[in-house]
Structure formats: structure tokens, C-alpha cells
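Can't paste images in this forum, so I'm doing it all in text. The chain is below; anyone willing to post the predicted C-alpha cells underneath?
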Amino acid sequence: MQAILNVLMAIWTYFATNILEQPAFMIGFIVLIGYILEKKPWYDTISGFLKATVGYFILTVGSAGLVNSFRPILVGLRERFHLHAMVTDPYFGQNAVTVGIMKRFGRSFADTMLLLLFAYIINILLVRFQKYTKLRAVFTTGNVQVQQAATAFWLFLFCFSKMGRIEILVIMSIVLGLYWAVGSNLTVGITQELTDGAGFGIAHQQMFGIFIFAKWAEWMEKRAKTKGKTESRRLEDIELPGWLSMFNDNMVSTSILMIFFFGIILIVLGPSYLVHAKFMKPGQSFIFYIIQTSLMFAVYLAILQLGVRTFVNELTESFTGISERWLPGSVPGIDVAATLGFGSPNAATIGFMFGALGQFVMIGLLLVFHSPTIVIAGFIPMFFDNAAIGVFANNRGGFKYAMIAPFICGVIQVAGSAFIATWVGMATYGGYLGMFDWATLWPAFTVIMKYLGYIGIAIVVIVLILIPQLEYRHDPDGYFQIVKDYDAWKESHKAQADSAK
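Text version of the structure:
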């Protein structure tokens, strides 16, 4: 029996390491399975696999480039002003757990792989029995699952440090699997509308945040209309006149905005520091360094959007096979970066800038009020949370909310991360995941479970189970239709809107 378990664990570890944790191959694998189930010709199946995998690799090149182009600024701010603090970044957070879990709790980090496996199975089962659960999305972003499993492991051990290994793995798997299924499911409707029926949800670190801010922007806009105020236009609907018309082009507007945004920070850092830190070469023009850094940001954003366009179509078409055979009425939850290829391209840039401003303001307040933990803003939460929230807020409420929502998000990311990382002890090891859901929802879960024990676990599970039920009750006719037949849903939704006027 033990030998069989060892073989099964070896197979799972191989799959998790080489496919599940590698999003490009995971997406390619889903496309491959989907086309096989649809009985596509072998050459179309191989072609779809390659296009989806290459498309996701293109997306990762864009993502990595964005991170690297912003690195001198974040590293510079930390070193120039001698800030020794915790970094809000998923990879820093995962490393903090890897280093600290044995020292703090005497547990093995290897258990996170078992947690990932069990939670993933629960996510699939919840979608399979959607008739009862009302859940429609399968979380497929494996690298994110590893990061979340690591952080969740620490938070649960903080609450239940004396609980046995099997018991804590079972409870954690239920809660984390529910979070993946419920969070991705929350984004299905708003993502279908943003992408005009592309057929996916979001599986990332800010699913609740995107839903909350999208709905808040929509509610604020409707409230303004009832008071007779002018409707707030979306960024893509604004045609600027005269010389301002150059901002209508996304690549131009991103370049100009980044020159302004990066320029201010790089001027504060100064050319002497940048040369000393080897970001600039001796004798290199400081002005052209600023321009190049800013323009490369626009380049990598364009690469990311190209990657999205390359793989999303293949994924959408192929998942039909999986949906029809194994998981009826379901959609894949994929990386939040995929949404940046839809709506206004400028919304992502605006969201990033105002989210960064919110983070910097909150970091300043932590310094002023002598917080025990000072946060160094990581680029991944700063960009991917706030850019996506800017896209959705713009789509649901207009350009004003593409600025306001990310700013509020930035403040919350830093404040929430400083609180939870200090309280549970992760700040000592230099990092915390830091993205919206893990600066709000998971700290709330931790407080409830820490002070209410098993009753707290029950409350968290019941709340997560109730969320999709409430969503379904809000629109029972369109809830599954928006996934199964988006065009029909759009027609009926338009008819309802017309009759309500």
C-alpha cells in the first residue's frame, strides 16, 4: 500500500512541478485535452497546443519585462532611503514560508504540495456538482496556487499550531479549495461582459477585490445617474481633441505617462545612485536612461497584450470539450494578466499609476506613525492588482473609477499586509504575498479562526458556500446562461434593460 502511495505521490509531484506550476504548459495541456475531447484532427490539436503555450510564454515575457523594468525604482527607493523592511510580493512571501515554517512551527514545507493537491481536487468537485454549489470556474493558475498554499499553510498553523498534520491538511484543503472556486466564480460574469464572451474567469490573488471594485464602480455610476449627474464615460469612449489626440493611442499615452511617472522617481534617486547601483552605466545620459526605462514599460505591456490575444482564443474554443464531457457549464480561471488585453488599453496604465500612488501614500503613513513593519512595495501587487482593477472599474463605471478604485486598493494592500504579516510573524522573514485578497479577506479569515477556533472555521466555510448561492439567487435565469450561451444572455439582458427604461 505504501509503495502505491509513493508511486502516486511521485506522479503527482512530477505533474505539479512540470505542468501545474508552469502556467504556459498548464494552459497548453488544457487546450490539448479539450481538442482531443472535441475529436479535432491531430494537426489542429498540436497547432492549438503550440499556439496556446507560445502565447502564454509571450505573456510571461511581457510580465517579466514589466517587473524588471520597474526593479531599479523599487530597489532604489529601498536602498537610497535605507528602508529595511518586508517586501509585498508573492515570491518573497513564498520564500518567507519556505525559510520560516520549520523554525516557527516545526512543520515541513513539503506539506504545501499535498495541500495544493487536495484543494485542487475540491475545486474540481465543487464545479462538477455545480447544480448544488452554483460554482462555474476551475482555478488553473498553478504558480499562484503554490504561493497561496504556502501563505495559507502559515496562516492556518498560526491559528491552530497544535493541530495534527492530517487534520490541518483536511481543513486547509476545504477552505483553500472553496476560496479558489468561489473567488474565480465571482469574476465569471464581469469578465464575460468585459471580454464579450471570451469564456474564462480570473484565477489569481485579487478575485474578490476585482469583483468588489467592479460592482462598487457600477453602483456609484448608477447612483450618480439617479441624481441627474452626467454619465461618466469610459476611457475608450473619450476622443481627445487637438494635440491631446495623441493620448488616444495606447502606446503613446503609456510612454508619456511612464516618462512622467518614472522620471519623477528616478530624478529623486539621482544619477549618482543609479550608476553606483549599476542600473546605469558610467557616462550614460540620465535623460535617455529615463526615456528608455519608460519606453520599455510600454514595450513589455504591448508584448503582454499580444500574448493574451494569442492564447485566449485557443483556450476558449478548446475548453468547450472539457466543459461538455467532464465539467458542464464551467470555464477555466486563468491569470489576471489575460484581462489586460480587453477594454481600454489605457485603463491598465491609469490603474497601475494610481494604485502605486495609493501604496506610496500608505507607506509614507507607516513611516510617519512608526509602524513596527515598514512595507516595501512589490511590483506584482502594484501592477497586476491595480491595473486589472482599473480595467474593470473603467468598464463598469467609467474613467473616474479607473483612478479612484486602484488608489483605494493601493492603500488597502499596504495597510492590510503590514497588519497581517506583523501579527502572524511573516514580516520577520522578509516577505508577504501582499495582493488584495491576502491583505483583506485572508486577514479577516485569520482573525475569525484565531479567536473562534473551530467555530471560526465553520463560519469561514459557510460564508464561502453562501456567496455563489446569493449570486445565483440574484439572477437565476442568466447565471449559467452567461457561460453556456453568452450571445443569448446578452440579448435577454439587453431586452431587460430596454424594458426597464
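The longest strand covers residues 331-334. The mean pLDDT is 86.
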